[in-house]
């Protein structure tokens, strides 16, 4: 159980909540990453702030990893992507591509991901978000169980 | 155009920076860490990692306070209105979409936020996930052509 990290998790969660609060009270926008990422091409009229947000998100991750190298991944602990499960004989790039496609399609037609539904939606007491969160957590837990990926 | 004003873009930059820092500090950028939460088969053996719950609950609480405060105001600081979703029906699309996302999340341990923040470390094959995420997102729009406007109309 050396993996459980309640303190850094709580601190990180507070930062993510603060990020969502800043965007909401400042610009009236919900910090749903799938929405911000998925509307980067026209006909979306508001591309600039989305790009600024995403570039800043990447830059902050990069800086945080240098300021606190021991905390998360990075440095001598690379954040590797998951390989396909043993014995499934699926090449890892194909596995990753399927996961990416499902995540892209699913978050688009379901209108949100862990941040948009999980953080912002639950905070707004949205019934749609409660349902979405129960479904994607439930299905993800089943998927991990079936694939035995970890 | 208020959405190009420095105050508006600086707010987006600050929010993105806090978000990225939060994802790193909480270690949610690490797909293995996320999957160790989703792996409920590890509960009986004592190897389950409940950290993700310790991330999302404080995040929701902070945002809950912000939303409550925002409800007392007519508009946010740098825009003319709060852009809150106006569609409230629980429909098939919501369930199917969330389920498809759940499969992708369980396969990879990656949801969109961490996937993008991982650009900071560029792990092998990350680009495959990001490109397919983008393609999937646009395929989603194609499957449901005029999504937003149509659903709003149906909601009347």
UniProtKB/TrEMBL annotation, chain A:
Residues spanning the membrane: 6-26, 47-68, 88-109, 130-149
Principal subcellular localization: membrane
Q: Which topology term describes how it sits in the membrane?
A: Multi-pass membrane protein
Organism domain of life: Bacteria
Q: Where in this chain does the entry annotate a coiled-coil region? A: none
UniProt keyword annotations, A-Z: Cell inner membrane, Cell membrane, Membrane, Transmembrane, Transmembrane helix, Transport
InterPro entries according to UniProt: Sulf_transp_TsuA/YedE
Give the UniProt subcellular location, in the record's own words: Cell inner membrane
Query: What is stated as this protein's family in its record?
Result: Belongs to the TsuA/YedE (TC 9.B.102) family.
Protein name per its UniProtKB record = YeeE/YedE family protein
Task: List the lineage, top down.
Answer: Bacteria, Pseudomonadati, Pseudomonadota, Alphaproteobacteria, Hyphomicrobiales
Automatic annotation (TrEMBL), chain B:
Q: Which residues cross the membrane?
A: 52-70, 94-120, 126-144
Q: Which Pfam families match?
A: DUF6691 (PF20398)
Q: Give the species this sequence originates from.
A: Devosia algicola
The beginning of the lineage is:
Bacteria, Pseudomonadati, Pseudomonadota, Alphaproteobacteria, Hyphomicrobiales
Q: What is this protein called?
A: YeeE/YedE family protein
Note whether Transmembrane occurs among the keywords: yes
Which InterPro entries does UniProt cross-reference here? Answer: DUF6691
Transmembrane helix among keywords:
yes
Mind listing the UniProt keywords for this protein, alphabetically? Membrane, Transmembrane, Transmembrane helix
